[in-house]
Amino acid sequence: MRSFRKESRTKASGALELRWETGAGYVRSCVASLRDISASGMGLSAAIPFSVGSTVQIKANGITRYATIRRCTREGTHYFLGVQLEPTVDRLGSKIGHAESQFYPKSV
Hints:
By secondary structure, this protein is mainly beta. The chain has a single domain (10-87), classed as Thrombin, subunit H (Beta Barrel). Helix content is 5%, strand content 53%. The chain is built from 1 helix and 9 strands, in the order βββββββββα. The protein has a 6-stranded antiparallel beta barrel. A hairpin with a 2-residue loop joins strand 5 (55-60) and strand 6 (63-75). It is globular and about 35 Å long. The model has no long low-confidence stretch (mean pLDDT 84).
């Protein structure tokens, strides 16, 4: 089967904190499990569903990044989330860093 992905994914594991703001302005959070990672995104498992297109804050290992939910699919009692990370930029506006090296330098 042909893959249409632009980037390769690496299996990974670990706990991440997801934070988001509700329509009423409340900040909510949950723990998600990392399943795989690429230069610009991640596959996660979470206990609650997210709306495709919504923005979440991801925290792990002292790093905070923002991401957009691109996919949310129910898998048994959990949901698979495909997230696209917002680019990290330096003070001059140049893109820096990759998800693999920032969150989990030693992928599983």
